[in-house]
Amino acid sequence: MSQAQGESGAAHIPALDGLRGVAILLVMLIHFGAQAGLPPLFHRLAYMGWVGVDLFFVLSGFLISKILMESKNSPSYFKNFYMRRALRIFPLYYFILFVGIFVLPLYLSEEVVKTYFDGSISGAGYLFAYMTNFSLVFIPGLTFGVFGHFWSLAIEEHFYLLWPAVVKWQGKNRLIAICTGIMAFSLLTRIGWLSTGQGWGGAYLLTFCRIDSLACGALLALWIDGRSQEEMLRYFV
């Protein structure tokens, strides 16, 4: 999910490692815990794991916004950000896609390929273009097999593409207003989508329906910007 932690130019926050661990456990819970034959109570608990995805989005919004604000006045602001993002994300992402789409199917049985990789092969272009989430909603019957969960990476990549320009050209107060507006817009978009009878797919997968979590993380980064730990603690003690 979030790949922002440890980026050069932003101080490492150890507490967020534990938070990321919680998010991973929640996501694993919904993927592996919601299986048939388990007690109903466990099923209900397992389905709460979807919160882990939102937690990842909040972490991404927070960490990326923190990095951008700390480097806002750098003459190489855009170049440094996009180069670091590309080097951290693209090599592993495209390597996994290449192996899963072009290599493994050559060595696996036809049944296994059809079950786990068929959708990935036919929809490879959408995977490579980070359009997994939109294609899952608007192309009936399309699935991505073992790469279906890459929809969340697509949402983060859309955020990485646009948010640096917003941070660069807007002041702190305006950014706070923009984050608040994005959160309201995303909520209203989900409500509007569901009210038209479109179902939960788009409300759960589309970027403009899920970007409120990223905006929430960005808002937290703006809130702590320039504040000491003692000052922040006063709000909670």
Present the secondary structure layout:
Blueprint: H1 14-32, H2 40-47, H3 51-70, H4 77-103, H5 110-116, H6 118-122, H7 124-128, H8 132-138, H9 151-169, H10 172-195, H11 200-205, H12 207-224, H13 229-233
Helix pairs in contact: 1-3, 3-9, 3-12, 4-9, 8-9, 9-12, 10-12
The percentage helix is over 70%
Give the end-to-end Cα distance, rounded to a whole number of Å. Answer: 32 Å
What is the chain-wise order of helices and strands?
Answer: HHHHHHHHHHHHH
- Biggest β-sheet strands, sense, barrel: none
Number of strands: 0
CA-atom Rg in angstroms: 19 Å
Residue fraction in strands:
under 5%
Describe the structure concisely for a colleague.
The chain is mainly α and 237 residues long. The chain contains 13 helices and no strands.
Structure description:
With 237 residues, the chain is mostly helical. It is 72% helix and 0% strand. The chain has 13 helices and no strands. Helix 3 runs parallel beside helix 9 and helix 9 (151-169) packs across helix 12 (207-224). It is globular, with a radius of gyration of 19 Å. It starts with 13 loop residues before the first helix and ends with a helix. Mean pLDDT is 85; it is low at 1-9.
